[in-house]
Known about the structure:
By secondary structure, this protein is of the alpha/beta class. It has a single domain (10-258), classed as 3-Layer(aba) Sandwich (Rossmann fold). Helices cover 41% and strands 13% of the residues. The protein is built from 7 helices and 7 strands. It has helices at residues 19-30, 54-65, 79-93, 124-152, 173-193, 211-216, 234-245; strands at residues 10-13, 34-39, 69-73, 98-101, 155-160, 198-204, 256-258. A 7-stranded parallel beta sheet has the order 3-2-1-4-5-6-7, sandwiched between helices. α4 (124-152) links the parallel β4 and β5. α3 (79-93) runs parallel beside α4.
Amino acid sequence: MAAVDLRGKNALVTGSSRGLGKQYALDLARSGANVIIHDVNNEAAAQFNEAPSGTHVAKQIAETFGVNSVFIPADLSDAIQVKAMIDQSVEALGSIDILVNNAGGDIGYQTARPDPNDALDISVEDIRSVVERNLLSTMYACKFAGLHMRERRSGKIVNVGSVAGHLPVTQGIIYAAVKMGISQYTRSLAEQLRPFDVNVNCISPAPTYTARFLATRTVESEEGRSRLQRIAQPEDMSNIVLFLCGPQSDALSGETIVCWK
Length: 261
């Protein structure tokens, strides 16, 4: 496959000051796109020592790849803040050609992960936290960016689900359910935006090495496992996101790419 050329495109990647989102942003910029870096606040990037700040990440991207990049904070569980983020992104770059809805995670209301993390003993507050951080945040961003793309009759939206949404689980049940919901939402939004030449697809990443992944899990030895059995590297998932953002996927909409491991 030819290299993805995104010169002249403007991308917004949510949750991109750290983790997989940061990798997506770096690779979009490497392909020539201007990139909006987002997180809930400027300090979030430092939580797992991935970067000093969101502003630092944007500056680093701009200097390294010669593209425009700015940091915009927003709490994506608040629709008013999401709309403001979209408006500020358009003001900063002129348009949004690419939206990657990466922000999310199996995160509790007051803890790194819900505990308990099942369907019955989990607290109501943790249920709300997981639904807001993953499903509602995706819907809000798609709504406001989608209106912009519909008016321009152009755009690519990549929603981020999880392989957990395609498997029966006993832990992280709420997280798995909302990630499966993102796949269905993607399929339906794609139909609504199909007449306006806006592509909407979803990637459901496999377990992937990130700083938060390593900080919240015990990783067993992978000795003897094949490449398709090992925990993924960020670049593995980012290559798929690049495909969905680039011209090679122009005829693809409404699909979910599930990265089985």
